[in-house]
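User: Hey, my collaborator sent me this sequence without any context and asked if I could get a structure. I don't really work with proteins. Can you help?
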Amino acid sequence: MSDLFVVLLIIALLVCLIVTVGGLLLYSGLLTEVVIKTGPPPIKNVTFAYKFKEGSYKDCGAAYTESCSIGPKLTSIAVFYDDPKQRPPEKCRYVVGSILCEGEEKPDEELQKLYEKFGFKLFSLPEVSHSVTTNFPCTTPLSYVLGAYRVYPTLSSYIEERKLCAFPTIEICSSDVTNYMVPLSRQTDFFVPEMKEEVKTDVKEEDSDEDRGTDITGADSHSDVSSVSGGVPWDSRETSLAASTAASLASSLPLRDVMDANEDIKHRENSDRGSNESLGSGSSFEELDMDQEEGEEREEKEDGEEEDVPQGDDGATEAVELVADKKEPVGDGEE
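Assistant: No problem. I've predicted the 3D structure and written it out in structure-token form, which is a compact way to encode the shape of the chain:
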């Protein structure tokens, strides 16, 4: 009898444990629907204190803990630059830190000095009009783990299916929700100085590899984007949603092309800013419509002129007479 009681007690305890774990997972967001959308990002231009890290994204928890210990009431932020599927996990680059101010505000000097004392640096992220966004509730510490496993596969599928030019991935962790955003424009402006130096190093290595791998026809045998013509999938720093949906996945492009594209875009913007200062972001489409309308008007005028031209033998005679009437005497009556 006592043995049966012990077995029943063990079964009851196991059932209670399973129910407790299951309830904790559900409360942490296990079955929460992940809704991906494209629109305004959850943050504007922000200034944050950060530390640059290189390694597996699974090890970013220590950096979060360090940042939160300095400013426990501040919103945490992380920027993940590389795709673990295309770059070895131990070489993935990211930054983790805390947001000090947003918009036109200036960071608190004492708080800034405190972060700098522990080796943090300051950087400002730009404001963009469109990005791929989603969020995940933060009800327990387990929510941060579940969020990564639930959000990133869905986010990646959304970007790939629509062939968006979206990178890098940004996490904004507040007390009750984690917001995820992937900018659709000005991507390299989200690169901290350390990342830009890393990109320059990668570009030099790619150039040396290409020099060794170029065949006699001049084609690069090591190029990862030989099928992509034009070099870049977007043509303005503040790309519209329509242009972004037509772009190829940014992770498939070498960082060299991304940096060169943004430099070319900056030069074009500087040269055109003076003449197009009063135009909005949709001016190019308006100009295209105006050109089309003017072309249609010209065609209508040409059709009308053709209808007014006399036809047949009588028409030819009338035309000759009109030309003769228009001629004026030259000199001593010579024509």
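In plain terms: The first strand starts at residue 37 and ends at 39. You can pass these tokens on to your collaborator as they are.
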